[in-house]
Amino acid sequence: MLSISLEEFLIWKKKQLSKGGDQQSFAVLLDCIGGISASDLNLMSINLEGKLHLKKKLEFLESVWDDHLLRSCPIQYLCGITFWRDLKLKVTNKVLIPRPETELIVDIVFNIFPRKSEKLFFAELGTGSGAISIALALAYPSSDGVATDIDQEALDIATKNFINSSKQSNLKFYCGNWWSPLESFKGKLDLAISNPPYIPKDTYEKLPKEVRNFEPEVALLGGEDGLKHIRKIIQKAPLFLKENGWLILENHFDQSEKVKQLLLKNKFTSIEIVKDFSGIGRFTIGRYK
Asked: Max Cα separation, the chain?
């Protein structure tokens, strides 16, 4: 552990932020590599003569920050860690960095199934880092979940994240495209969730370079109109859901009405468009019969 004065640290911090970047990314750097959380800093701010204990030298932290600014590489990939809800998750460029708005999927599930003692059987399609499935497995300890991903390296990361987050064994991972690894679970699911690739091709080409150059294309690109994967998921969902089983999908900001029509066409009812923090229809949910 390296010890420096809080005053020295704050001068250094101000200098780093003056180069560019945002406070949130800098906080991730400090927490993941420096070993200093935001709450640590808040507690110490009342005593400028206090000492901070760092896991790494300021020079090393500065080199990572400079790399982030120079290449626009997401700080989460440089640190190998991201924070999501109350989880600390390992991430590499094999998985999408889970977004704050996606946290609302878990809240939607809480609204549908308010009793945490429920014995649900749920599936997540395209789990990536495992964030959604792990949050649900922890919140519903009596339930069982299965999560799929087309990329075995992504599943290895998700599996490690589950082991690091919990001593439970109520979540299993399967490699394959969407529903294909879950053939033995037809008609058994209370709930299926997916945050699939939904970015239309022309929009993908215009994404910020920190997304387009670093995050996996397979987790973002949804075909010409962005609905290629959503269509596949909705069309096969009735085979896997129980009667009155729910499907929850995240979609692009302008796709909800189209997703709603796809759900209606495939005999879903109780369809609802749920808005995100910005008031955008980010999620479309439906009940099968």
From this structure: 66
In three-state secondary structure terms, 211 is: helix
- Full-model pTM: 0.91
User: Domain containing 187 — which CATH number?
Assistant: 3.40.50.150
In the structure encoding, which two tokens stand for residue 215, read together? 């995050």
Assess contact for 283 and 250: CB atoms under 8 A: yes
The identity of residue 102, as a single letter, is T
pLDDT, tens digit, for every residue of 25-44? 999 999 989 988 877 777 66
The identity of residue 5, as a single letter, is S
Could you tell me if residue 82 is inside a domain?
Answer: no
Range of the domain at 121: 95-288
Structure tokens at 269: 């009812």
Q: What share of the chain is helix, strand, coil (3-state, %, to 5)?
A: 45, 25, 35
Do 73 and 214 form a contact (C-beta atoms < 8 A)? Answer: yes
Residue 255's SS3 state is: coil
- Count up the domains in the chain and report the number: 2
Domain co-membership, 131 together with 255: yes
Whether residue 65 is found in the same domain as residue 205: no
